[in-house]
Amino acid sequence: MRWILILVISLVLPGLVNAQTPLKVHPDSLLRARIVGSDTIPHVNMDEIVILAPRVFQNRFDERKYWSLVYNLKKVYPYAKLVSETVREVDAELAALETDKERRQYVKSMEQSLWGKHEKDMRKMTISQGKLLFKLIDRETANTTYFWIEAYRGSVSAFFWQGLARIFGTNLKSEYDPDGADKLIEEIVSYIERGYI
Length: 197
Prior knowledge:
It is a single chain. The chain is mostly helical. It has a domain at 60-194. It is 65% helix and 5% strand. α2 packs across α4 (127-141), α2 (60-96) crosses α7 and α5 runs antiparallel to α6.
């Protein structure tokens, strides 16, 4: 009985060994190397490591104010990017339309679409987040929020929204100054863009 079992195994085993598929190696798992003369030098791509100096604050109030600004910028920066992309898209579409009526209808439909998608988030924003959003819109599009409202909705609508903004202590005409008053905002936004914070 043993001899029959050994005979069956010896006949079946070579077939199983040959039936195996060859080992596939993913190219990213191989170590790249460069040959210089008679030496082989490994080449490894590494992600950039950034070490930021710890920020020194005058007091706890300044620290809380800084981290509040970071929080608010992380919340509104994606909306500023969205506005920038939407403005480019709308401008391209408006250039293709022939009549003013078609342009007004398109702007109105885009406004309703965006308002439907983002109304809840916009209503949850604080006044300070709104102020930051207005500045970031100017940063991303090179024009103020007032300019865009006037361009798409007309001067009467822009005047109305500017008046409402002034009641709440903000300004739709506020411009972004990365080298002056908004230097800290520019620094934090650059950290956000690079994924540092």
